[in-house]
Design goal:
CATH topology of the largest domain in chain C: Aldehyde Oxidoreductase, domain 4
Chains: A alpha+beta (289), B alpha+beta (167), C alpha+beta (749)
Distance between the termini of chain C: 59 Å
CATH architecture of the largest domain in chain A: 2-Layer Sandwich
Strand order of the largest sheet of chain C: 3-7-1-16-13-14-15
Mean pLDDT of chain A: 96
Distance between the termini of chain A: 57 Å
Number of helices of chain C: 21
CATH architecture of the largest domain in chain C: 2-Layer Sandwich
Strand order of the largest sheet of chain A: 4-5-10-6-7
Low-confidence stretches of chain C: none
CATH class of the largest domain in chain C: Alpha Beta
Radius of gyration of chain C: 27 Å
Number of strands of chain A: 14
Strand content of chain C: 25-35%
Mean pLDDT of chain C: 97
Shape of chain C: globular
Largest interface: B-C, 57 and 57 residues
CATH topology of the largest domain in chain A: Uridine Diphospho-n-acetylenolpyruvylglucosamine Reductase, domain 3
Low-confidence stretches of chain A: none
CATH superfamily of the largest domain in chain C: Aldehyde oxidase/xanthine dehydrogenase, molybdopterin binding domain
Shape of chain A: globular
Helix content of chain C: 25-40%
Strand content of chain A: 15-25%
Number of domains of chain A: 2
Structural class of chain C: alpha+beta
Oligomer: heterotrimer
Chain lengths: 289, 167, 749
């Protein structure tokens, strides 16, 4: 039996030092909704638990001077939902974050944890990808930024280097006529892991798509940015032809597996179905914006 | 294994306890604190039988480390009834037979109260999604949902009848 | 009683155990502790099928904090050649299920158990136990288990003279099946499969056992029968029943799954060896891996009907998975499927098939939903082929008083036709489905079902307290509100407010033997013994009043909770209340109370008909239930809320079984979804309100007209949902669950 140490540093520098010093034996605790389950199942046995919720930067939501948002990695879904303006700017990201587990889980689970848990099926990730979120990470060698889609490396693995901690997500300013949405397919109405998840962000001008990003989850070892799907939508008025092309691009991007939650054929088909439905909601929101 | 000393508040009362770093809040509630009203149905956040509030926010106590309670306020089923009687939800659950075996009931009640605290006038759909994290295998949820809706209506009515000064 | 205007029977009173349950104070098995208590944990097989070459526990025993280690050598062995039955359970299988002996037979099979001063140390000790396995080929599915070259689980099993995984066969025959089919104008034959599903009780198995220095053993545990716990623990540990006191904790759901034991004998032996009280609590993963679900199945059903809609012949073959040891509910599948109908020629056969899965346990009308799923889907097809309304076809052929059922009985007065008539007349059946939104299709399905119901042994004691109130003790764990119903009945008989009656469940030392909470027997049986006990108490109260008034007891009536002279001729005396008589108990003959113990009989079958509306998302394959109504002959609804609760709970479980619940195994025979995340039971937002229509056709053989109501609600839903999906899509599913990938595959194929 090995002793576990619990640390709750008040600054990011302390957290980075402690995390780096433990050299792989440490785990970051944000909401804990994945970590505690994994510890209980014996999948992980950390020597040190670094609780980052006492670090102000990790737990605040800020509006950036440019008109975007910066969300601390440990902000819970419930707190994000309570922000007076975030949900109006990024309804798709908000609904994705708040599809993670139950109300109970939403009180704790954070987008940072969802990303770093590196499940191919994390709900917030495709929506963050569609939103064009950029993450800030800090490690022993300083800070850096990377696009959110660059973080996952495969199931349970990230591209963060040893000692690096995810600090925050930065979402860009929203031009007029923009909207985003996230839909996932689950067998029940709640409490399941996504069988397929799809995030779409659109900007429309006079009914014409001027910008688009599409993220897909649970169809490959990592959540995907689907460039060809976005390209099929840009310049279109979301006519049937464009939607069919984008849906086909989503299905083509899938590299799924057969598992207890779905089959290859099912996931491939559903990726296209969800693209159409998600794009319709995003467009409707863009029209209203 | 070195234990950690934690100072917290449980159901409004100051509480201190010692715990191991990896112990869950649920383990400490049910063990050293003797508050066995919170139940463990799964230990993975999928059933909601261990639901408590942390600073008023609904969480699964099995998914929270006990050390995280330091300086925060915990609310459990044991704190739901006041000295002079049951909470209206508890009373309504009895009147409408919204429990059978009763193992999920503490968690359902804590979750339902958290729901009504935020939304005093929920629709049936809002109640159903608000309680989706609480598994019940006995009732098919029908009587639970009806009891929550009925309690909400009564609590709104009682509030409306109160003189302005008291509200 | 049946014709009386009731004051308390039929009232929605507050349950006696309610306030404790809504405040978190009710003590379930895992909530009990004792001074000096230590923790037990089980080492489980990582293999689906393996010979256990050796078990070395030395390192575990040497770990500081470990107080005891047990293996199968510490339990009583029941030789394979001699059956020892306790109820329907054979101890040869039970002892091998509780702890593996010759072989590990499924992923999760107990191999050893330890007790230590903390859960952490106990878990560490499990890792130090060295087990040498010889892994054998395993078999999970029925078809694979029946192949000629299949791995044979047990060399002591043979079928038709050959080694086999078929552990048993049961057949019901009625009439002349060939002649019956010859008479038919329409014959439909279909094959079906269902997957194993778990009862899904939210409370994991748990117990606390203390064996004192003199061998006196106390068991607190969550079960559907404290007497079953005592008897099985006694058999498996060799401790006499008189030395075991089994105390029923509040039970957090069972649905049949807690009619056998898993932990109690292990905790008993660990406590005996360590000299300490031992607590054991299963994790959810252990519950899913190692406690019994109900069977997966494959069935073939063939039904013949004449042009005018008479069912003339029916044949069914039902193969049910037993899990690793014999004993699947073939009686329920083969017996209940055709039981709702008057069919003159029937052959119904069940086969019990073993494979490397956890041993099945009872689940709410065991086997019956499997039989009904196949039969009710074929009946739906027969109705379509005949161009008849599916409810009208059922009504035309409905079993009624005098119908001879293939499984044996000739029915007395039953209320099956009434359930169909009520469904036909209900707004649900008359309301159009409404137009589905784009991309979705709607359908409506109906199905019926039957369950035997049971009586059996029951004991009760009714005592009048010194202040004139009432304590009733019965012996069946209350799993869904039976105490509330017993309070209503006692209040009715005594003519007093139900709040003056306390209803308790006794332990094995304080109440007489009572059979399991199972078979929908509890209210049927306990109402009988409580009624007779209360009648004895009333007779005693009348005698005491007669003594005080110095008149003949025959001249004393008991009305509205007091003794009164039957008429002025008997004498003019002010009435004597229960409180007054209780106060004078000592002078009138001593304490007032009576107990009755009976083997109750006359539990007649239960029938139900269900209506289900679904909406199918044709691009995602998701089926949602929009509306659901259950119609059931409930005999007498002693406490209507808890009868409705049984109907609603059964419907919800059936919807889960039909749509999403299933065990998923990997190639090594390990359960891949041993938790509530991927074993997908319905959540609150999955379901609509579940409407109920209680039809009261009193059971003529019961003082209050009670029929069992708990199990038949799970019999019709599988077919009701399947028939609704067919109505929506025009394509039939012959396999459950109808999960989204399967629905989409069918739609595309």
């Amino acid at each position: 039996m090995t002793d576990i140490r619990y640390l709750a540093p008040g600054t990011l520098d302390e957290a980075v030092n402690a995390f780096a010093a433990a050299a792989g034996a440490a785990r970051i605790l944000a909401g804990g909704t994945d970590l505690l389950v994994q510890m209980r199942a014996g999948v992980v046995r950390p020597g040190v638990i670094v609780d980052i919720k006492k670090i102000a930067e990790m737990t605040t939501i800020e509006e950036t001077p440019e008109g975007g948002f910066r969300i601390g990695a440990a902000v819970s879904g419930a707190r994000l939902a309570e922000h007076p303006r975030f949900g109006k700017a990024w309804p798709g990201v908000l609904e994705a974050v708040n599809l993670i587990g139950s109300k109970q889980v939403q009180g704790r689970a954070s987008p940072g944890g969802n990303l770093c848990n590196a499940s191919p099926a994390g709900d917030s990730v495709p929506a963050m990808i569609a939103a064009g979120a950029v993450v800030t990470v800090q490690g022993p060698h300083g800070r850096r930024q990377m696009p959110v889609e660059a973080v996952p490396a495969g199931p349970g693995r990230t591209n963060l280097t040893p000692g690096e901690i995810l600090v925050s997500f930065t979402l860009p300013p929203r031009p007029a006529g923009s909207g985003d949405a996230y839909l996932r397919m689950i067998p029940r109405t709640e409490m399941d892991i996504a069988v397929v998840g799809c995030g779409v962000s659109l900007t429309l001008e006079g009914g014409k798509v001027t910008a688009a990003r599409v993220g897909l989850g649970a169809v490959a070892p990592t959540p995907l940015l689907v460039g060809p799907a976005a390209e099929a939508l840009i310049g279109s008025r979301l006519e049937e032809e464009a939607l069919a092309a984008a849906a086909a691009a989503c299905s083509a991007a899938c590299r799924p597996i057969d598992d207890k939650r779905g089959t290859i054929a099912y996931r491939t088909k559903v990726a296209g179905v969800l693209l159409r439905r998600t794009a319709a909601i995003a467009a409707e929101r863009a029209g209203r914006a | 294994m070195a234990k950690i000393h934690v100072t917290t508040t449980v159901n409004g009362e100051p509480v201190e306890f010692l715990c191991e770093p990896q112990q869950s809040m649920l383990d400490v509630l049910r063990g050293p604190l003797g508050l066995t009203g919170s139940k463990e149905g799964c230990g993975s956040g999928d059933c909601g039988a261990c639901s408590i509030t942390l600073d008023g926010r609904l969480v699964c106590s099995c998914l929270m480390l006990a050390v995280e309670a330091e300086g925060h306020e915990i609310g459990t089923i044991e704190g739901m009834a006041s000295g002079d009687g049951l909470h209206p939800l508890q009373q309504k659950f009895l009147e409408m037979a919204a429990l059978q075996c009763g193992i999920c009931t503490p968690g359902v009640l804590v979750a339902a109260k958290a729901l009504l605290d935020k939304n005093p006038d929920p629709t049936e759909t809002e109640v159903r999604f608000g309680l989706a994290g609480n598994l019940c295998r006995c009732t098919g949820y029908d009587k639970i949902v009806r009891a929550v809706l009925e309690t909400a209506a009564e609590m709104r009515g009682a509030k409306a009848e109160m003189p302005e000064a008291v509200r | 009683m049946n014709d009386m205007t009731n004051k308390w029977i039929g009232q929605r009173t507050i349950r006696p155990d309610g306030a404790e349950k809504v405040t978190g104070r009710a003590a379930y098995a895992a909530d009990t502790t004792m001074p000096g208590m230590i923790w037990g944990k089980v080492l489980r097989s990582p293999h689906a099928h393996a010979v256990i070459r050796s078990i070395d526990t030395a390192k575990a025993e040497a770990l500081p904090g470990v107080k005891a280690v047990v293996t199968h050598r510490d339990l009583v062995e029941f030789p394979l050649d001699k059956s020892v039955m306790l109820g329907i359970q054979d101890m040869r299988w039970m002892c091998r299920n509780v702890m593996a002996r010759e072989k590990a037979l499924f992923h999760g099979h107990p191999i050893a158990a330890v007790a230590a001063t903390s859960e952490t140390i106990a878990a560490e000790a499990l890792r130090l136990i060295e087990v040498e396995y010889e892994v054998l080929p395993h078999v999970i599915e029925i078809d694979d288990a029946l192949k000629p070259d299949a791995p044979i689980l047990h060399d002591f099993l043979s079928f038709e003279g050959k080694p086999s995984n078929i552990a048993g066969k049961l057949e019901h025959r009625l009439g002349d099946i060939e002649a019956g089919f010859a008479e038919a104008d329409v014959v439909i034959e279909r094959s079906f499969t269902t997957r194993p599903v778990h009862q899904g009780y939210i409370e994991p198995h748990a117990c606390l056992v203390s064996v004192a220095a003199d061998g006196k053993t106390t068991i607190w545990s969550s079960s559907q029968g404290q007497f079953m716990v005592r008897a099985m623990t006694s058999l498996l540990t060799g401790i006499p029943q008189s030395d075991i006191r089994a105390i029923p904790a509040e039970i957090g759901g069972g649905f049949g799954g807690k009619t056998i034991i898993y932990l109690e004998p292990l905790a008993t032996v660990l406590s005996k060896k360590s000299g300490r009280p031992v607590k054991m609590v299963m994790s959810r993963e252990e519950v899913m891996r190692a406690s019994g679900p109900t069977s997966g199945s494959k069935s073939t059903v063939k039904i013949g009907a004449t042009k005018d809609g008479r069912l003339v012949a029916a044949q069914g073959t039902f193969w049910l998975q037993a899990g690793a040891l014999p004993g699947s509910p073939i009686r329920g599948a083969a017996g209940c499927g055709f039981a709702p109908y008057t069919i003159p020629n029937v052959v119904s056969t069940g086969f019990d098939v073993v494979s490397n899965r956890s041993k099945v346990a009872a689940y709410r009308a065991p086997g019956a939903p499997i039989g009904a799923y196949a039969v009710e889907c074929v009946i739906d097809e027969v109705a379509e082929a005949l161009g008849m309304d599916p409810l009208e076809l059922r009504l035309k052929n409905a079993a009624r008083q005098g119908t001879k059922a293939a499984h044996g009985p000739v029915y007395p007065r039953i209320g099956f036709m009434e359930t169909i008539e009520a469904a036909l007349a209900h707004p649900h059946y008359k309301t159009p489905l409404g137009e589905a939104p784009p991309g979705k299709r709607r359908g409506r399905g109906v199905a019926s079902g039957f369950w035997f119901n049971a009586g059996g042994e029951s004991s009760a004691q009714v005592n009048i307290t010194e202040d004139g109130n009432v304590v009733v003790t019965t012996g069946h764990p209350d799993i869904g509100g039976s105490r509330a119903s017993i309070a209503n009945i006692t209040a009715e008989l005594l003519g007093i407010d139900y709040k003056r009656i306390s209803v308790l469940i006794g332990d094995t030392a304080t109440i007489g033997y009572s059979n399991l909470t199972g078979g929908s027997r509890v209210l049927f049986a306990s109402a009988m013994v409580v009624t007779q006990s209360t009648e004895k108490v009333i007779a005693s109260l009348r005698e005491r009043a007669a003594k005080i008034w110095k008149i003949d007891p025959e001249a004393v009536a008991w009305e509205d909770g007091e003794a009164r002279p039957v008429s002025d001729n008997a004498g003019r005396f002010p009435p004597l209340s229960l409180a007054e008589l209780a106060a004078r108990a000592t002078e009138t003959g001593g304490p007032i109370g009576a107990g009755v113990q009976l083997n109750t009989t006359g539990a007649e079958g239960g029938f139900a008909t269900h209506l289900c509306d679904v909406e199918v998302d044709v691009d995602l394959g998701i089926v949602r239930v929009l509306r659901y109504t259950s119609f059931q002959d409930v005999g007498r609804a002693v406490h209507p809320s808890y009868v409705e609760g049984q109907m609603q709970g059964g419907a919800a479980q059936g919807i889960g079984w039909a749509l999403n619940e299933e065990y998923i195994y990997d190639r090594q025979g390990r359960v891949e979804n041993a938790g509530f995340l991927d074993y997908r039971m319905p959540v609150c937002s999955d379901l609509p309100m579940l409407d109920t229509v209680m039809i009261e056709v009193p059971n003529p053989k019961h003082p209050q007209g009670v029929r069992g109501v708990g199990e038949v609600p799970l019999v019709p839903p599988l077919a009701a949902v399947a028939n609704a999906v067919y109505d929506a899509l025009g394509k039939r599913f012959y396999a459950l669950p109808m999960s989204p990938p399967r629905v989409l595959e069918k739609l595309e194929g």
